[in-house]
Structure of Transposase:
Amino acid sequence: MKRRFQCPVETKKMLVVEVLSGYRTEVVARKHGLSPKTLGNWVRQYQDEVNDLMVKKEKDAKQLQQDAAQFHELQKKYDEAVKLLGEKEVENRMLRDLVKKKYPDWK
């Protein structure tokens, strides 16, 4: 009698994701020591749930990319502002030094 393998649902879904992402069922089954027929049954069983999860993950990934691009843009603006502020501070110091030289009693 063959031994039945009890696989957790999350593991099944992970394998279904692997198949739906473009790998052949036979290759994934062989890689994990399963029957291709069993894996095919799991794909049919969990395909709708996994597709919904994959779509959600794709949306999250796109949002993450947009956030990263926005962060990069804000970082550039911040760096430019800091540079400009530094230049203004140096300019103020130079002007104060010139005023002190000309008017030593000035505060």
